[in-house]
Amino acid sequence: MKRGTAIVEGERVDFQWDAQANVIKAEVNGREYTLETKEIRRGLYWFSWNGRSIEATVIGTDQGYMVSILGRHIPVEFLDSRKALRRAGHSHHEGVVEVRAPMPGKIVRILLAEGAEVAAHQGIVVMEAMKMQNEIRAPKQGKISRLAVAEGSAINSADLIALIE
Amino acid sequence: MFKKILIANRGEIAVRVERACREMGISPVAVYSEADRGALHVRMADEAHLIGPSPSSESYLVIEKIITAAKRSNCDAVHPGYGFLSENSRFAQACEDAGLAFIGPSAKSIALMGSKVESRRAAAKYGVPMIPGTMDPVVDVQEARRVANTIGYPIMLKASAGGGGKGLRLVHADSELANALEATRAEAKAAFGDDAVYIEKFAQGPRHIEIQVLADRHGNAVFLGERECTIQRRHQKVIEECPSPIMDADLRHRMGEAALQVVRAADYYNAGTVEFLVDSDRKFYFLEMNTRLQVEHPVTEMVTSIDLVKEQIRIATGAPMSLRQQDIALKGAAIECRVYAEDPENNFFPSPGTIRLLKTPSGPGIRDDSGVYEGWTVPIDYDPMISKLVAWAPTRGEAIDRMQRALLEYQIEGIQTNLAFFREILDHRDFRKGEFDTGFIDRWLREREPRKPASETERDLALIAAALADAQEARVPPETVTNKSSAWKTLGRIRGLRR
Lengths: 165, 499
Known about the structure:
Chain A has one helix spanning 82-90; strands at residues 2-8, 11-20, 23-28, 31-41, 44-49, 52-61, 64-69, 72-78, 97-100, 105-110, 117-118, 123-129, 132-137, 142-147, 154-155, 160-164. By secondary structure, chain A is mainly beta. An eight-stranded antiparallel barrel of chain A has the order 1-2-3-4-5-6-7-8. Chain A is elongated and about 60 Å long. Chain B has helices at residues 11-23, 40-43, 63-72, 89-97, 107-114, 116-125, 141-151, 174-192, 249-265, 297-304, 308-316, 396-409, 419-427, 429-433, 440-447, 456-473, 485-494, and strands spanning 4-7, 27-33, 47-52, 77-79, 101-102, 155-163, 166-171, 197-201, 207-215, 221-233, 236-242, 270-278, 284-290, 333-340, 342-343, 349-350, 353-354, 357-359, 366-370, 377-378, 385-393, 411-413. Chain B has 17 helices and 22 strands. Chain B has an eight-stranded antiparallel sheet, sandwiched between helices. In chain B, strands 3-2-1-4-5 form a five-stranded parallel sheet. In chain B, strands 7-6-8 form a three-stranded antiparallel sheet. The two termini of chain B are 31 Å apart. In chain B, α4 packs antiparallel against α5 (107-114), α7 (141-151) packs across α8 (174-192) and α12 packs antiparallel against α13. Chains A and B meet through β1, β2, β3, β4 and β5 of A and α16 and α17 of B.
């Protein structure tokens, strides 16, 4: 049996599973499943579960995987996979990193002050452009050594928002 | 007949025209920008010519580059598709000047119908019903008051230079008029540098219904029924159908005849569409004429069995049209959904990127006019429409059921699409009953219940599928992932490309 921990739609689950010939046996948070399966091609699987015919598509994303099943899109991330390790490696930037505006807009909210500690992917400011608001996030963990904008600032594409070291 | 046609467009409409060319024994020639290297319309053509960098202002919108490509490849005609240069009278003239047949109306007709003021004036002269109001800007508040009292409130104040929903103000009563007029004028002056404002009666519960016309250079003209285009979001059509659920033979005949009067007023030939606003009393008013093939033309083709692109090509050769009004009969019902690379759960944010999996629907009564393929990267530079899914059936109810079935079969992975959004709209009671106006989607988006979260079983099965894929990935090198952040960066470039 292979064991693992995953985040499924933001919720942590422990699971174990094993595949033999065309049958998968799995246990997810104590719930048991026996599935007949066929790999149609890479990333596309057919399951028969309790007589129900189900298709699942799995696409790799920068967060892990996006699974399309029964008309839904469900994100799945494995906490112990090589992928997570690789990603952790990516978000490690050396030295000072500049955070710049992706497009012209207006700063509508400051989330973190100058001097604050910031985690990788944590929001620094909220920017409005094309009538939509989006968080501008830190590319790496560190300290905001400079915040170059204030609430209400109008900024242009590629203007400096913050420095993180 | 033409031997070679250059298609001055991209995406699904270029593919659509290429198909008509093939069936007529004409060789299709494609043009493409750098972003469209290897695009479906390029792969399907006999010849393909690079016309410049990705921005359309440096490629698909450059008249000289397209004329040069057409001459170099010895084409005898040019099909403009829709959007881009299709309603540019200078382009139509440049084609004719270069000895290339332009598959569309004359430059003069395009120019006339392209002007908001001139087209209304021309149509009014031929007795086409107009929304009550003023043709010319109002001089002062006294005049505005006189007009408003004659046509009755509510009224709309409209900036002459306005467009895209800007410079509009709804006025409910006389007491609001003076202030509203002043405010609209100031706004128009600031936004367009022109403070001319005219008055129109405000239509209650408006629907957008358009009439397809075909006319040749010998004075023959026919109308091919209507298209119901009321289901819109931010003035963009989303679902179109033929026939309209509110139509009867009498109204269709009257609207068709009015459309033919517009054809006469514009001295029009080739395919065109006359757009009308229809109010809750089923009174109709002329809005504008689109002097080109329409995005939603397939619903008319499905119901009339007439290939509009082939008719356009035949008319452009100068031959008289063989179709007569009595030959045109509508059979059954057709619905079209415009499938977009966008995320309805995130304020319809555009979602360009690589299509990692594509399963298209088929079976009885289904037509998918697509411009993409699995592995294709939807470029950030153009309108993010992927395909037009059309369902035909003997009745409207069956066409909706068939569309629902096709939407279930349709699978696009790697980018976000609006497929699930259509399944919800098509299930809406009022849509099923055919009772809606142009505000339908905005109201529904405000009122709609949030979707139930995935069940435990759905989540568990998703996890098992992901575990299978992850185990395989450990053995095979990982694929490149789609870059999600690019969508935000490029939103601004994508907006405004929509037709």
